[in-house]
Write a structure and sequence with these properties.
The structure is a single chain. The protein is mainly alpha-helical. The chain folds into two domains: 15-105, 2-Layer Sandwich (GMP Synthetase, Chain A, domain 3); 124-154. The protein contains seven helices and three strands. A three-stranded mixed beta sheet has the order 1-2-3. A hairpin with a 2-residue loop joins β1 and β2 (54-59). α6 (124-133) packs antiparallel against α7 (138-155). It starts with 5 loop residues before the first helix and ends with a helix. The relative contact order is 0.10. The mean pLDDT is 81.
Length: 159
């Protein structure tokens, strides 16, 4: 049995027309949403559904969601209006029925932590000279202890 792409399945099966229409509507609103939202927010959020007359927007984090909620009235007004001159999308009758914008936080998987860069060799001679130039103090004692531990670790055999 051959595996058909999802788009072909949606086109060929009339039972899936409602799903195709909802996906098309969300895609159309997403394209307009990208034009309305500042780029920093657009890269971390997206229109994920239309629930009745409510546009549902998914945000990657709570700060992004808070910023989107702050500009929600402007976004909703922009989504309800016709696209500006020179735009390809025409005003859709269904867009005028939009009454609310709901922002939901859906945290995406965190990227793996980067391993810290290995620290280079300590300049033992410079630390020793610095320690000798100081008067008796806790800083001098600490520097001398660091120098001694570095010299000790250099002489250990590595197995």
């Amino acid at each position: 049995m051959a595996i058909d792409p999802i788009a072909r399945l949606l086109r060929n099966h009339p039972d899936l027309d409602p799903i195709r229409d909802r996906m098309a509507e969300a895609g159309r609103l997403q394209a307009r949403y990208r034009d309305l939202v500042p780029e920093e927010l657009a890269s971390t959020s997206r229109v994920c559904a239309v629930d009745g007359t409510t546009v549902v927007v998914r945000a990657d984090s709570a700060p992004v969601a808070a910023a989107l909620r702050a500009i929600a009235p402007r976004l909703l007004a922009g989504l309800r209006e016709a696209a500006g001159p020179g735009k390809n999308s025409l005003k859709n009758k269904r867009d005028q029925e939009l009454t609310a914008l709901r922002v939901e936080v859906q945290v995406s998987a965190r990227p793996p932590r980067r391993a810290p860069a290995p620290r280079g060799e300590l300049p033992v001679e410079r630390l020793e000279r610095l320690a000798k130039g100081l008067s008796d103090s806790p800083l001098r004692e600490t520097l001398e202890r660091i120098v001694a531990s570095q010299r000790k670790s250099r002489t250990r055999s590595k197995r």
